């Protein structure tokens, strides 16, 4: 029996995703918002809060904040979620998350108070100021995925939402919660629990100005302007390859190969077969077709047969 897909979104999810995106220095090179965004946000934050925020990453993962957002009643706005979190006893938090962890952190009460402090300030200084069109578009994407769920298998829907990750069924995996997010785009971010995966899949939720190419078209065209990446695509078109196969084939150091794979995945040109901790890469033919479709749309291009004199 396969896993069940759950589809969800609310502003509180994007609250914690935006915090995670800011706190993870290693992510700043790979996300669309980049270091320019990080520097602009730093201008909004007191220096002592920037130090406090460095502790947030482990708390987000180890406390299961995404699980708590999923359990929160109401509209789950940033403020409403924070107020609800304040009202929870340590015993109630344990009850909500214990089925997902091998071992629940012992210092939940301390973590809760620290997270409430961080989320409250983050919302006040930054999250409450973001363009609300982003939230609206993320909610619209959730609605689209709910409609697609009616006619697609869990594996195909997961592959579509994540732009190429083929999450295979495993004996332990029971549920996958798909949540659209903006701040970590074009990357996805998954949190693995005992029998559940929470996947924050990327969504280009910021409106594109008239006359400008979409973010996906830019990723595709920029990604293909590299000889090594084209060679990798040709190699994986022969069949699924493991990471070490790609290192051996290219002769590049692992960090460089990883950099190329991040770019290819973000452009939707690779399909990733994920089964437990094992990962294989293959060409995502739909990504190649998408490039043709987006380029023709952007150029207002259509095939017109020339008149030929007989």
Automatic annotation (TrEMBL):
<dbReference type="InterPro" id="IPR051081">
    <property type="entry name" value="HTH_MetalResp_TranReg"/>
</dbReference>
<keyword id="KW-0804">Transcription</keyword>
<dbReference type="InterPro" id="IPR011991">
    <property type="entry name" value="ArsR-like_HTH"/>
</dbReference>
<dbReference type="Pfam" id="PF01022">
    <property type="entry name" value="HTH_5"/>
</dbReference>
<dbReference type="GO" id="GO:0003677">
    <property type="term" value="F:DNA binding"/>
</dbReference>
<protein>
    <submittedName>
        <fullName>Winged helix-turn-helix transcriptional regulator</fullName>
    </submittedName>
</protein>
<dbReference type="GO" id="GO:0003700">
    <property type="term" value="F:DNA-binding transcription factor activity"/>
</dbReference>
<keyword id="KW-0238">DNA-binding</keyword>
<dbReference type="InterPro" id="IPR036388">
    <property type="entry name" value="WH-like_DNA-bd_sf"/>
</dbReference>
<dbReference type="InterPro" id="IPR001845">
    <property type="entry name" value="HTH_ArsR_DNA-bd_dom"/>
</dbReference>
<keyword id="KW-0805">Transcription regulation</keyword>
<dbReference type="InterPro" id="IPR036390">
    <property type="entry name" value="WH_DNA-bd_sf"/>
</dbReference>
<feature type="domain" description="HTH arsR-type">
    <location>
        <begin position="209"/>
        <end position="303"/>
    </location>
</feature>
């Amino acid at each position: 029996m396969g896993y069940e897909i759950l589809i969800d979104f609310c502003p509180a999810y994007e609250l914690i995703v935006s915090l995670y995106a800011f706190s993870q220095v290693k992510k700043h090179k790979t996300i669309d918002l980049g270091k320019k965004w990080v520097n602009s946000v730093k201008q909004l934050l007191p220096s002592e809060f920037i130090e406090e925020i460095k502790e947030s990453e482990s708390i987000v993962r180890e406390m299961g904040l995404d699980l708590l957002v999923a359990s929160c009643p109401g509209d789950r706005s940033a403020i409403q979620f924070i107020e609800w979190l304040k009202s929870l006893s340590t015993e109630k938090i344990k009850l909500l998350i214990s089925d997902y962890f091998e071992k629940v952190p012992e210092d939940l009460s301390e973590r809760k108070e620290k997270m409430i402090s961080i989320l409250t300030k983050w919302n006040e200084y930054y999250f409450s100021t973001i363009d609300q069109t982003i939230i609206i578009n993320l909610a619209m994407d959730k609605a689209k995925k709910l409609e697609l769920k009616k006619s697609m298998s869990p594996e195909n829907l997961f592959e579509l939402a994540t732009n190429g990750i083929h999450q295979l069924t495993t004996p332990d995996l029971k549920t996958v919660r798909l949540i659209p997010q903006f701040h970590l785009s074009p990357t996805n971010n998954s949190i693995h629990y005992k029998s559940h995966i929470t996947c924050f899949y990327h969504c280009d939720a910021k409106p594109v100005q008239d006359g400008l190419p979409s973010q996906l078209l830019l990723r595709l065209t920029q990604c293909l302007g590299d000889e090594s990446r084209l060679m990798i695509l040709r190699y994986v078109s022969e069949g699924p390859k493991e990471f070490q196969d790609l290192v051996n084939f290219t002769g590049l150091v692992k960090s460089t190969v990883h950099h190329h794979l991040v770019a290819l995945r973000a452009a939707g040109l690779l399909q990733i077969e994920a089964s437990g901790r094992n990962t294989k890469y293959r060409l995502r033919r739909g990504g190649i077709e998408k490039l043709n479709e987006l380029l023709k749309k952007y150029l207002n291009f259509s095939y017109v047969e020339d008149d030929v004199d007989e």
